[in-house]
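Lab meeting, action items carried over

1. Structure of the two-component assembly. Owner: GW. Status: complete.
Input record:
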Amino acid sequence: MWRDALVVAGKDLRIERRSWVGLNQVLPYALTVLLLFGFAFDQDRSLLAQAAPGLYWLAVVFAGLPAVQRSFAVEAADGAADGLRMSGLEPAGIFLGKAAAVALQLLVAQAVLAGGVAVLFHSRLAGPGLLVASALVSTAGVAGAGVAYGALLVGLRARETLLPLLLAPVLAPVVLAATQAWRSALGLSAGPGGGWRWFGLLACFTVVYLAGGVLSFGALMEET
Amino acid sequence: MRQDEPASLGPALPFRPLTTRALGWSALAALAVTAWWGLWVSPPDVVQGQLVRILYVHPAVATMCYVGFGLCALGSLAWLWPRTRSPRWDRLAVAGAEVGSVFCLATLVTGSIWGRATWGVWWTWDPRLTLTAILFAMSLGYLALRRGIDKPQARSLASSVVAVLMALTVVVDHYATSWWNSLHQGTTLLQPNPTVHGWQLATMLASFVAFGLVFAWMMVHRYRVEVMEERYEDELLQAALAARRSEVALLEPGGPGTGWAGREDWAGDGPGRRLAPAPGSPPGQAGVGAGALPPAGGRPEVGVR
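Predicted assembly:
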C-alpha cells in the first residue's frame, strides 16, 4: 500500500512539475484572497492581526478546492481513471498517494501564504512547534477529505460545483480548530495549552477522514 | 400486489393507503391539540412570558431533525454493510435526509426567532446553532450529490459514504463548537427535575407526539415516492428494451415489416444509410449486412424517399 502511495504521489507531482498548473494558478489565487481580505477589513491593522489565523485557514481551504479538482481532472482525461483502476495498484495506496500529492502542494502554498500573512497582517510567532504541527495535521485532513470527496464526484456532470458544496461544511471543524490552534501559536489567545487541545481535535478529524478514504476509496473507484 | 397499485415490474409500494391516511389524520389532530393547548390553554411562563410558546415547536422539531439524520446514517451504514445491503436501507437513508433537512430548516428558523426575542440577535455563534447550520449545509450537499448520479448502485454507494462521513464529522463538529463557545439552553425535559410543569409540560409532550407523527407521515410518503421513482425507472428501462427488441425484429430476415427499407425515418443517401436490399439478396434482407454496400461510384439507393 505504501509503495503504491509513493508511485501515485510521484505520478501526480510529476504531472504538476511538468505543467505547473496547480501552483501557477492556485498560489496566485490564494494570495489574491489574502489581499481581498485586507480590502474587506478596510486595512484595519489591529483587526487584521486578530483575524489573521482565520483568514489564513480560509485562504487554505479556498486553495484546497482547486487543488483537489485538479487532482481528479488529470484522471478524467483520456480514460486515465480507467487506467488507474486497472493498474493493479491498491486503492488505499492510490488514495493515500493522491492525498499526499495534494497535501504537498498545499504545504507549498501554505508556506507562501504564511509569509503573506506575516507581511500583510503583521502577525508575530509565539509557538512555532504548535504552528507547524497543526499546519501539517490540518493539511493532511484537508487533503484526505478533499480526495475522498473528489473520488465520489469523478465522472459526474456537476462535479465542479458539487465539490465546494460537499467539502466546505465538512472542512468547517478544520477551519475552526486550526484557527484556534494558530491563535495560540501566534500569541493571540492565552497560553499554548488550549492550542494543543485544538490540535488533538484536528488529529481526530484527520484520522477520521484518512481512515474513511482508505476504507471506501476502492469501492468508490469501481462504482463512480 | 394490492388493489391500488398498477401492474408494474418494480418493488411493491409499502404501507396501505389506509395506514398512511390514518397516520396523516392522527398527525393533523395531534397538531391541532398542540396548537390549542399551546396558544390558549397553557399559561405564559413566569420568566419568558408569551415567548415560552415557541418551545412547543422548536425542541420537538429539532429532535425530529436529528432523528431524520440519524435514520439517514443508520440506513447508509446498513447499505454499506454487505450482509444487510438492500435498496430498502438506501430508501430509508434518502427519506431520512430529506425529511430531516425540512425539520432542520424549521429548527433554524424557530431557533432564530426565539434567539431574537431572548438574546436580542437573530443569530449567535452558539455550538448547537452552528452545528445545526453545518448539518443543514451538509444535508443539502448530500441531496445534491444524489441528484447528480444516475446509476443507482453508484448513487447509493457515494451517498452512503457521504452520510457516514457526515455523521462522523458531526461528532468532531460537536466538540469543536462546544469548546469554542456555549450559550444555548441545556436539556429541559431529560433532566432529573424538569423545569417545566403542568400544562407547559403536557403541551411540550403533545408537541413531541404531534411532530413525531408528522415526521413519520412524511417519512412514509418520501419512502413511497422513492419506491415509485424506482418503479418508474424500471418501466422506462422496460419500454426502452421493448423498443430495441422491436427494432431488432424489423432487421431480422423474414421478420415483421419490410426491414429498414420500410422505415421512412431511416431513408437517406449519406454514408451508412444504405437501406434497400441489394440485388440478389433474399426477400426481406435489407439495410445492414450482405449487399448493403453501394455500387462502386454510384449513388446509394434508398428504400423510401
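2. GW to write a short summary for the group page. Key points so far: Residues 258-305 of chain B form one domain. Confidence is low (pLDDT under 50) at residues 264-305 of chain B.
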